[in-house]
Amino acid sequence: MEELVALGLTKSIGVSNFNAEQLDRLLKEAKISPVVNQIEVSPYLSNVQLVDFCASQGLDVTGFSSFGSSSKGTPRSDQPQNILDDETLQGIAENYSKSVAQVILRWVIQRNITAIPKSVTKKRIEENIDIFDFTLTLEDMEKINGLN
What we know:
Layout: H1 2-6, E1 14-16, H2 20-29, E2 36-40, H3 48-56, E3 60-64, H4 87-96, H5 100-110, E4 113-115, H6 122-129, H7 138-145
Parallel strand pairs: 1-2, 2-3, 3-4
Helix pairs in contact: 4-5
């Protein structure tokens, strides 16, 4: 990838699903540091330590599966419930007159993480962008972090 940067075929390098140990090894060896690590980030998998590590190394984080894999159909047996039906998230959403999905995306954005939600309907895509007219309180952020 570094050769592609040198050739001008790409402007920067990113990685996906690297943990802190892998990133540390890469940062010690690479001539060109990656600028982003794409990882799963949801209230049930908040990845706080890895996000903090990335920030300490100057790497941005892009979060995928912000609604968790259980938001589609029947939750897996190792997941407590469909994240969109979570009572804590529903209560927070009601306080802001927002959907649970909007609260989750706002939580991701407030953590300085780029969110890439998967949506296919026009209504949901429009809803996903409508998250910049409110800010979650520190208390609400901590409640969501507690769902990890």
